[in-house]
Design a protein that fits this description.
Beta-lactamase; 11 strands; 2 domains; 397 residues
Length: 397
């Protein structure tokens, strides 16, 4: 793939590619002791002004990295983490849950992941493939035989959808779809609408980033199992990985400031999200620690270690089958600091930002979260700083 094509994909995804080429480093192991990731308010008194005490910010080095970047870009809050395959992680948060208030963000808060949900959805579906409920070549026309979809649509496979090679437009009218029926029925309706939708490209021929793809893929999973997407994710993914903070939609639905609020590009706070019908494409929120658990499993699987799925499933998840650089919920790139091939993705619901870079060859990943849209440059700097932190640690061992 040509450089300009890679740049275009990165722009569409909101992926922060700038962190990639900044550093090279020697591999090292994080200390096995977790540092300040689960402290409660009862363990440390609040600091003046109602902000949490330093311990609740998490790892002091990461907190020290976050603070000047957050201030530089005038952001409400930033969070960052480093994780490896065996689950060892260090993390921190800095700033405020809501701009103009005094309640500080903590390492226990939940953050909206946006399109970083896609890798989770793809992993759940990979489990169904392992169980024989679906195959990567399962076609829409077969799974939804009662819909009598046009031949061009009926031949769309699960693999086309999860790699954005189906030619579907970026979005359906999610607001209209969300007005009636259960979420399962709404996603089925999103499939039905394809009967009157013109595809943007022939199957497999062109990368067209689409949230619709992942909603339709989830609808296929619901159709063959008789279970809702939410229950599939809970039983197949979140419970086995002990991810207990996961939810969908806004991180906070009250005015109590128990969790971070999202903010627009101009710093105006809201607690809204896209309709839940499109949750498979970008609706998950969870704590940094729980996101680390998912990414740790992805590292283990990619490294051939014992993980939630079989090794061949992770190979499929992390391989771009139609050329280009998009796998299944992951953008594939090469970076010297990662020892070669790395995997990345970014997500935003226009009020939050989340970015992950994963380097299986070096057995680590960095995660960045922010509760304001348009924070790509800040997240870029945090990701680069986390990589640098790892490099410095290796040089002092």
């Amino acid at each position: 793939m040509k450089p300009w094509q890679i740049f275009l994909i990165g722009f569409v995804l909101g992926v922060i590619v700038g962190a990639g080429g900044l550093l090279t480093w020697a591999s090292f192991k994080l200390k096995s002791k977790r540092r300040a990731t689960n402290l409660s308010a009862a363990m440390m008194p609040a600091s003046p002004g109602g902000a949490p005490a330093m311990a609740l910010r998490g790892d002091t080095e990461i907190a020290g990295l976050l603070e000047p970047i957050r201030q530089k870009y005038h952001l409400p809050a930033l969070g960052g983490a480093i994780v490896e395959s065996e689950g060892v992680s260090i993390m921190a948060a800095d700033g405020l849950r809501k701009q103009g208030e005094s309640v500080g963000a903590t390492v226990e808060d939940v953050w909206h992941l946006g399109s970083d949900t896609k890798a989770m959805t793809a992993t759940m579906i990979a489990a169904l493939v392992e169980r024989g409920k679906l195959s990567w070549d399962s076609m829409l026309g077969d799974v939804f035989a009662d819909m009598r979809l046009p031949a061009s649509v009926g031949k769309i496979t699960l693999l086309h959808l999860l790699t954005h090679r189906a030619g579907l437009p970026a979005n359906a009218d999610w607001k209209a779809l969300s007005k009636t029926g259960s979420l399962v029925e709404q996603r089925r309706a999103a499939v039905s609408q394809l009967g009157s939708t013109e595809l943007l490209s022939s199957l497999g021929s062109k990368f067209v980033y689409s949230n619709w793809d992942y909603v339709v893929a989830a609808a296929m999973a619901e159709q063959v199992t008789g279970m809702s997407y939410k229950n599939l994710m809970r039983t197949i993914l979140f419970e086995p990985l002990h991810m207990h903070s996961v939810g969908y939609g806004p991180t906070e639905t009250s005015d109590d400031l128990n969790e971070p609020w999202g903010h627009t590009l101009h710093g105006v706070s809201y607690q809204v999200d896209n309709p839940l019908v499109m949750a498979p494409a970008g609706g998950v929120h969870c704590s940094l620690e729980d996101w680390c658990k998912f990414i740790s499993d992805q590292l283990r699987g990619s490294e051939g270690k014992r993980a939630l799925l079989k090794a061949e499933s992770y190979t499929r998840l992390h391989t771009a089958p139609f050329g280009g650089s998009y796998a299944l919920g992951w953008l594939v790139a090469n970076r010297a600091w990662g020892g070669g091939q790395v995997f990345t993705h970014a997500g935003s619901n226009t009020l939050n930002m989340a970015v992950v870079w994963m380097a299986p060859t070096r057995d680590f990943a960095v995660l960045v979260v922010c509760n304001q849209a348009g924070s790509e440059k800040a997240c870029d700097e945090v990701a680069a700083g986390l990589i640098a932190l790892r490099k410095r640690a290796s040089e002092t061992r």
